[in-house]
Input
Amino acid sequence: MQPTPSANRHQSIDQLYGHHHGWLQGWLRKRLGNAADAADLAQDTFVRLLSTAPGEPLDFTSPRAYLATIANRLSINLYRRRSLEQAYLEALAQTPEALAPSLEHQALVLEALDEIDQVLALLPDKNRQAFLMAQLEGYTQEEIASRLNISVRSVQRYLARAFEECIMLACQGALHD
Output
């Protein structure tokens, strides 16, 4: 009896892990300057491998380059998430203590900000810029069009797409609750 493609895939990942996990963790430690983050991201890299295209066998010609690419993207996400968290905590520090949200509410807000950030990161640059200019900076559609050197109609399309993505995120969240 031949092993299933899924079994072959897991065996490939096991071998990849055995041969390259130590290298990847060291590579991340040098880049990040933090052993704990390096260990977490190295592990997350292999978890990501396990969760992508589970039915397909793995065939790597340059496994370290592939792992480094995944790990690099995860580290960018980590820093972006930490930057968002820091900005939120700085905003909270400006809030009078009597008006400050509970720790549970703060955690929920941080989680929502992270999810929104992930959605916005998937959008093309102009869509993301238009959305952020409208939502965070309060620009009108005409002002956005002028600043981005595009038509008002394009701004409307960009905003609509960004809102659609956010709505889809909200619907997915509602399904998970």
Notes: The chain has seven helices and no strands. The radius of gyration is 21 Å. The chain has a mean pLDDT of 83.
